[in-house]
Amino acid sequence: MNTAIYPGSFDPVTNGHLDVIKRSAKIFDKVIVAVAKNPTKTPMFTIEERTKLLSRVLKSMDNVEVDHFDGLLVDYAKAKDASVIIKGLRAISDFEYEFQMALMNRKLDSSIETLFMMTSYKYSFLSSSMMKEIGRLGGCIGELVPDEILEDVKAKLKDA
Ligand code: PNS
After folding, report:
1. Residue whose CA lies nearest to ligand 1 atom number 6
2. Which of 42, 105, 117, 141 has the fewest C-beta atoms under 10 angstroms from its C-beta?
3. How many Å separate Cα 73 from the centre of its chain?
4. Does 39 have pLDDT greater than 80?
């Protein structure tokens, strides 16, 4: 089975992530959307909440699984028998950091390939952090996050 991992913080999942997941699911037999603990960030949603929100959004996609992980991504990929890591690229500004991570992951485990997928044009400006800032400041986030989680995001932003 041709399995790919799509890792990220997903704090929370946006329509940009969803676009990459849907397109990846057409290419691979199985896509594991893996929520990273990432101790360098202070997320708005806990890892359990982020995983639950993703599961709700992706429940109708038969070949997509949602999971979370701690530790090195390449170790997680190996444990899941996945040989490909998918990363979404929005703009040139993403490239330098993503390129560095891809090369480091290759150094850690050369059997795992990183595949970059260009985000659709209409989501090229979208990030979880920008969406949260817009929401906090009272802007409309309805077209930025999946419908299934919109109320959860609004409620969390109100509390934050
Ligand atoms: O959505 P993000 O925050 O850009 O995702 C970054 C993520 C989770 C993909 C990256 O931080 C990661 O792979 N973390 C796992 C730990 C790891 O393997 N670090 C070394 C990467 S070279």
Report:
1. 8
2. 42
3. 13
4. no
